[in-house]
Amino acid sequence: MNNREVIITIHMVSSLDGIIAKRDNNVEWFETPDHYEKGESFSSPEEFSKAVDCYIMGSATYEHALELSKDYGWVYGDTPTFVLTSRNLKQELPSVTFFSGDAKTLIENHLNPAWKNVWMVGGAKLTQTFIDLNLAHEIRLNILPIILGDGLRFFEYVGKEIPLHLKDTKAYQNGMVELCYEIKG
Amino acid sequence: MNNREVIITIHMVSSLDGIIAKRDNNVEWFETPDHYEKGESFSSPEEFSKAVDCYIMGSATYEHALELSKDYGWVYGDTPTFVLTSRNLKQELPSVTFFSGDAKTLIENHLNPAWKNVWMVGGAKLTQTFIDLNLAHEIRLNILPIILGDGLRFFEYVGKEIPLHLKDTKAYQNGMVELCYEIKG
Description:
The structure is a homodimer. By secondary structure, chain A is an alpha/beta fold. In chain A, 19% of the residues lie in helices and 30% in strands. Chain A is built from four helices and eleven strands, in the order ββαβαββαβαβββββ. Strand 10 (162-171) of chain A pairs antiparallel with strand 8 of chain B.
């Protein structure tokens, strides 16, 4: 990549059984009723995203987030957001840019050189692309205290072995555990 | 269950993508080359299992462990171990008992009332049975810092939602993260 200082992180929230979306797209499971005494207090999604300079997502994830924004607000705030899509989607938010090329071209030629902290936030298909093409440096997985039992998997089929380095782990009061890994090799 | 004081724990070691066994059964990935500065030192499997009064496993897991014992020793030590199987397996270890009934009968009628801490250690099929029949109280998942990409999943298809309570989490120097959950409801 041109800009070696950028860190591209695949970020995902999953259940313990590795599911990132229910078949009906219901997201009530994000609001866990759990309480973990020893956990850190969980900052709001807005607080959480302050460290992120730019988001990348697939069009299904975008449309889902847009749908959710009617009830919960747009979770990515004013942070520049690239949506990878070849479809003609309607511009609804000033922070969103639609990009019809591939992920590698986007990263190499269109990311602002000042951006250091880029998060790819879904979905499963784009995760697969990022892993296949070695586009990501980190994986940050937040595991919620639930087994969903059915739905879309974070890792449906990776098909190759990838060694990781555990960089950090945190547990939150809502029972969520965050695992942060560097992708090696 | 008769004995309400017993805690039955499903214990599994998986990759980040939720795989518990490679297709070729190779277990070299258990020996992670990772180093996590902030992690606790990892006690040996023998040390680890001192807290366990009894193991339960399926016959495939048993045969796999027996195969591995040629190189690494029998990892479950002298701890009483029940193997659920309808097959006529050869008795090779004094600590192992073959049981041809179902898991529920084993737990209700054959566990020593003095045993408080029973671990079900695999495989995927027996995990499914324990979850389907609500036989387990806890899940303890140890995630190693690797994506395996292919193999047998811990949670292949649970098919129902199960709320969990995060009881504890620990990170080890070898990059392994342990998640311990109470199964609710």
